[in-house]
Every structure is written in C-alpha cells, then in structure tokens.
C-alpha cells in the first residue's frame, strides 16, 4: 500500500471522512471522491468542480466561478488543509510511487527492488 496507496480517504491521515464532514462534506460527496480516487495519481486532481459539482462547491464553500476556472486554484488549501495534511493523505491514498521510505522496509533490502530503469 505504501507504493500504490489505498485508493480512498478512509483511514487517511489529515484528510478523511471525519475532517471532510467537519468542513461541510456529506456522505454522497465523500463517496464521489473515493470513487474518483481509485484511479488518481494525486488527490488534488479529484477535489474539483467536476467530481463534486460546481453548484454544490459554490453553495457549500462560497467559491466563485473565477476561482473554479483558475487552473492554479487548489481546493484543499482553500478549504484550510495544510501542506502536511495534504501530503500525508496523498501518500495514503495515491501512494509514494516508490518503496524508499516505506515503513518496515530496511535500507539493506532496497537493492533487491532495483531495476534497470531509474526511478
């Protein structure tokens, strides 16, 4: 799970159903996020108007059309989540895409996973 993630926010540190509900999310929207996260490479790409619905995002959080149309707009920081929370949840959900740093894997065991392609 460390390399490829869990594919959902359940049990994720920092950003999970409990913290999302505290911000105004409901079970339906959390289910939509979890469905989209199964194939996501980064959680920030799922927290958007297309996954959650533009009207719902504007009505619930007060985001404007200008914000939602700005390609640099990131919903998670705008909702008050810290970089630390986002990074921790991202590794839990999408994985680290590497085994380096995985808990319970000793450094001396890493060479067995080396391959011809640089990571």
Question: If you had to describe this structure to a student in words, what would you say it looks like?
Answer:
This protein is mostly helical and 119 residues long. It has one domain. The chain is built from 7 helices and no strands. The radius of gyration is 16 Å and the shape is elongated. 18% of the residues are buried. The mean pLDDT is 88.
Which key phrases capture this entry?
single chain
* Largest β-sheet summary: none
Q: In angstroms, what separates the terminal alpha carbons?
A: 18 Å
% residues in beta strands: under 5%
Question: H/E series, N to C?
Answer: HHHHHHH
Mean pLDDT: 88
Task: Assign a percent range to the helix content.
Answer: 40-55%
Domains (count)? 1
Any idea what the radius of gyration is?
A: 16 Å
Shape verdict: elongated
Number of strands: 0
| Low-pLDDT ranges | none
Q: Structural class, from secondary structure content?
A: mainly alpha
Number of helices: 7
Summed up:
By secondary structure, the chain is mainly α.
Write the layout of secondary structure elements.
Layout: H1 17-23, H2 27-37, H3 49-52, H4 54-61, H5 65-69, H6 75-78, H7 83-94
């Amino acid at each position: 799970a460390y390399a490829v993630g869990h594919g959902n926010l359940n049990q994720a540190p920092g950003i999970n159903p409990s913290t999302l509900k505290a911000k105004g999310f409901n079970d339906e929207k959390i289910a939509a996020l979890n469905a989209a996260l199964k194939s996501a490479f980064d959680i920030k790409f799922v927290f958007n108007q297309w996954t959650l619905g533009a009207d719902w995002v504007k009505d619930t959080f007060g985001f404007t059309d200008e914000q939602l149309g700005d390609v640099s707009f990131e919903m998670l920081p705008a909702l008050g989540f810290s970089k630390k929370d986002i990074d921790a949840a991202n590794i839990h959900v999408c994985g680290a895409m590497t085994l380096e740093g995985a808990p319970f894997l000793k450094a001396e065991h890493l060479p067995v996973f080396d391959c011809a392609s640089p990571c």
